[in-house]
Amino acid sequence: MDSALHRLRSPVDVTVVVIGIGLVTAALVGAALAAEVKYGLALLLGVLYAGVALINLPLGLALWVPLIFLEGIPAMNLAGKAAGSVIALAWLGSLYGRRAIVRATIARHRRLLALLLGLLVWVSISLVWADDLALAAEDLWRWYALLMIFVVVITTATTERAMRWVLIAFMSGAVLSIVIGVADGSFTGAADGGARLEGGAGDPNYLAANIVACSIVAISLLALPIGTLIRWGIAAAMAVLVAGLVMSGSRGGFLAAGAAVLAALFVFKYRRAYVLAATAVMLGIGALAFLNVPDAWDRVTNFDDDNGRSSLWTVAERMAEDNPVGGVGLNNFVVHSADYVREPGSLEHLKLVVERPHVPHNTYLQILAETGIVGLSLFLLFCAGCVRAAFLAAREFEARGEWALGTLSRGIVVATASVLAASVFLSAATDKRLWILLALGPVLLGLARNGATTSPSQPGLHRGLTDPTQPARQPPSRRATHP
User: Fold this and answer.
1) Separation of alpha carbons 365 and 349, rounded Å
2) Whose CB among 257, 306, 384, 481 lies 3.0–4.6 Å from 399's, allowing a Cys bridge?
3) What is the C-alpha separation between 289 and 246, in angstroms, rounded?
4) DSSP state letters, 146-161
5) Could you give the angle at which helices 363-399 and 309-322 cross, rounded to 10 degrees?
6) Residue 183 near residue 199, CB atoms below 8 Å
7) Nearest-CA neighbor of 240 among 205, 202, 273, 207?
8) Strands, E, within 287-413: which ranges?
9) CA distance 473 to 317
10) What is the signed CA dihedral for 247, 168, 448, 441, rounded to 10 degrees?
């Protein structure tokens, strides 16, 4: 009896179990390949990805990030959800071994996480007064998934290498979305004029908003000590991103780009020459793209028709006035929108309100109308906290003379601000790409306070990123740490 128990507890038995699982998995993959090649390949890729995520969670997270840019493609949407589930399980499985890191991260950002939990509790409570409970519940699970994504990112990308992987994957996702859209002819002959690139996002406006953010991330990555090949790859990616923005024909995307430039001039207070130079390069690429897509120029400069947004915004304002504290319930805007068409004031696009109800296409008005001033306040405070974390990280990096990471942190501030600006024209509260950017603020602050370093002697563009307010070869002053 004792010898049998000893055998069960021995390491050999664990090896046998692993081999057994491998044989069963191989048999299942073989059977799937025999039945249908595409399903067999999908299963094989899934097994390989699960193995990567279990062995190296940061790498698994980085490999998942590009998939959230391809959710307009049904197969990629399914793959993204499956990969996200694997990441969540791998994170839970590694929790015990990484408990010290997780505890320290949660303790550092406890106020930010408290705001997020408060927001989730409030949107959950809003189901009590939601008339269509099914619609509300359909949206509620997304908020809890976003909580999981946020926590996984801030507790997994805890090293400079892992953070770089996530940023490169983030930029690559937008590039891949554009390339796929062009390759399969994913232009839509929209009723509001001209063919527009949807890309893997499935919507030209969401594509454009994320292109702007990824362009800023790409420029910021050039500040890091990276190899020449990667630098040229990023430069090529920037050209693709700008061309994709032009082909999207999104006025909201270009307005977000303008807001990003203004934000950059403020955030990079002592490096405005760099900001203007980068803007000039991007404008040059954009001008060449407009020459090849003249219809896009006509669309982005035509503000006579807002495609019904003004009517939807008016309804949202009326709804919020009637339900100022709690709103009408999560995801219930479309249920109540038709109730507000008979009030004084003309609405030009009644079809979008009555016949084919649409969401407001404004993140802030939708949250206000559905969850009231309480929900909107919690959401804005949470976003502000994440942006503040990235800004504090920049100041702490620069106080130690780590100008490359300081520049990157300020770039994340601008990229996040650009998506928040674009959210005036989009219902993007549950957009995973926005939440990845929000999570990067706490990630960078954690790196700054854990003493992440970038040697100033390493080659690359970062060697020129010295304190512009101080003479050469002098340590940064107090003034430089408080831009």
Assistant:
1) 18
2) 481
3) 6
4) HHHHHHHHHHH--SHH
5) 90
6) no
7) 207
8) none
9) 56
10) 40
Q: Which of 301, 381, 362 is nearest to 114 (CA)?
A: 381
**Interior angle at CA 340, CA 337 and CA 345, nearest 5:** 130
User: Tokens 């099914």 belong to which residue?
Assistant: 134
The answer to whether 43 touches 32, Cβ cutoff 8 Å, is yes
Distance, CA of 329 to CA of 321 (rounded, Å): 14
Give, for 262, the enclosing helix (H) or strand (E): helix 251-267
Q: What confidence tens digit (pLDDT) does each residue in 192-214 have? A: 556 788 888 888 889 999 999 99
Quote the Cα angle for 126-130-134, to 5°. 110
For the record, the structure tokens of 25 come out as: 């998995």
Q: How far is CA 189 from CA 54, 249, 270, 389, in A?
A: 44, 12, 44, 42
In which residue are the tokens 């408990």 written? 99
Q: How is residue 246 written in tokens?
A: 């032009």
pLDDT digits (tens, 9 = 90+) for 389-413: 999 999 999 999 999 999 999 999 9
Give Cβ neighbours of residue 350 (< 8 Å, ≥ 6 apart): 311, 341
Q: Which of 270, 273, 271 is nearest to 482 (CA)?
A: 270
Name the residue type at position 365.
L
Q: Which of 162, 289, 168, 288 shows the shortest CA–CA distance to 237? A: 168
Contacts of range 465-473, beta carbons closer than 8 Å, 24 or more positions apart = 465/223, 465/403, 465/404, 465/406, 465/407, 466/403, 467/270, 467/398, 467/401, 467/403, 468/270, 468/271, 469/270
Position 241 pLDDT exceeds 80: yes
Phi/psi for 158 (5° steps) reads -100, 5
Start-to-end CA span in the chain (Å): 72
For 189, the enclosing helix (H) or strand (E) is: strand 187-189
Rounded to the nearest integer, the mean pLDDT of the chain is 81
383: tokens are 């976003």
433-471 pLDDT, tens digit each: 999 999 999 999 999 988 654 433 333 334 334 444 444
Q: What's the length of the chain?
A: 483
Q: CA–CA separation, 307 vs 351, rounded Å?
A: 11
CB 256 within 8 A of CB 300: no
**Tokens 């990471």 label which residue?**
405
Q: pTM of the full predicted structure?
A: 0.84
Which residue type occupies 364? Y
Question: What separation in angstroms does the CA of 156 have from each of 51, 91, 103, 109, 142?
Answer: 17, 8, 12, 14, 21
The amino acid sitting at 151 is V
Alpha carbon distances (Å) from 247 to 170, 298, 323: 20, 12, 40
Which tokens in the block code for residue 150?
A: 């946020």
Residue linked to tokens 């949107």: 123
For residue 81 the two structure tokens come to 């959800």
